[in-house]
Specification:
With about 270 residues, the chain is of the alpha+beta class. Helix content is about 25%, strand content about 20%. The chain contains nine helices and ten strands. Bound molecules: zinc ion.
Length: about 270
């Protein structure tokens, strides 16, 4: 999504910027004419950076989509047909990036981003910040996380940023870990497998647009006429279907109020 926004308005001069909320209106004239320096993702937040002006530092538009916000990119002169509320838009030449429905939008000086609670609490973000990859192992030893269940931890953006609900099930299955396993009880080999799997599946989900099933397996399924939704995951949303690794029926459960899928054979209940 952020790649698409960057391709559309990144490194371009914003001819016009529009906000829906009254509190942001003064920024329409402040940001118009500035260059969009970059568009970045941090966890599930999107940051649009505008460059500094003659007598004014750079600004950032922070937005968090929650579960309903949606970015669309397209032509500047044609408004997309939608019933959604347009909340923020950047028009640059023939292109535009438009944010619909999101309610958590803030405009702040670039150097004040640390004041946004969501960003301050974010854990390592290995997909968006490659230098964060080496910060995963220390998280497993952090007293805030070491004694908690991985099933809950994987949705905690302070533990690892950017993991959504389907990735949680896919990571635990690929790492062969039951959701009640705790970081402090992992064997050394399980720790390194877990970290490798987190990095591998984040990269895979990005590369294949949300697909985390083994790419070769998914390709075979595609040849057999299996639709995207049914070949997308190894375990998520496959309750009752046979595990690809061992043919045991996949089990659906609820952890931290969200649905979680696992294989009781590949991911045995911990004995200690
Ligand atoms: Zn299995």
């Amino acid at each position: 999504m952020v790649d698409r926004i960057n391709a559309s308005v990144g490194r371009r001069r914003a001819d016009r910027v529009a906000f829906a909320f009254e509190r942001h209106k003064p920024f329409e004239s402040i940001l118009a004419g500035r260059q969009v320096v970059s568009v970045d993702a941090r966890g599930k937040a999107v940051l649009v950076f505008f460059d500094a002006a003659e007598d004014d530092a750079g600004w950032c538009v922070y937005s968090h989509n929650q579960l309903y916000g949606q970015w669309r990119t397209g032509q500047a002169h044609t408004e997309p047909k939608t019933n959604r509320q347009l909340r923020f838009a950047i028009y640059a030449g023939a292109k535009a990036a438009r944010l619909y429905s999101a309610s958590d939008i803030r405009v702040l000086p670039t150097d004040s981003l640390g004041e946004v609670d969501y960003l301050a609490r974010l854990g390592p973000d290995p997909l968006n910040r490659p230098s964060d990859r080496k910060r995963l192992a220390p998280q497993l030893d952090d007293p805030r996380f070491a004694g908690r269940n991985l099933g809950g931890l994987l949705l905690d953006q302070g533990f690892i940023a950017g993991i959504g609900n389907y990735l949680r099930s896919e990571i635990l299955h690929a790492a062969r870990l039951h959701p009640t396993r705790k970081p402090r009880a992992l064997a050394i080999s399980e720790r390194s497998v877990f970290i490798d799997v987190v990095l591998r599946l984040l990269d895979r989900a990005y590369k294949y647009r949300g697909m985390t099933n083994d790419p070769l397996r998914a390709e075979r399924l595609k040849q057999d006429g299996v639709r995207f939704g049914a070949r997308r995951y190894a375990v998520f949303a496959r309750a009752g279907l046979p595990c690809y690794a061992c043919h045991t029926p996949v089990v659906k459960t609820t952890v931290a109020s969200r649905r979680l899928y696992y294989c009781p054979t590949c991911q045995p209940v911990p004995t200690r």
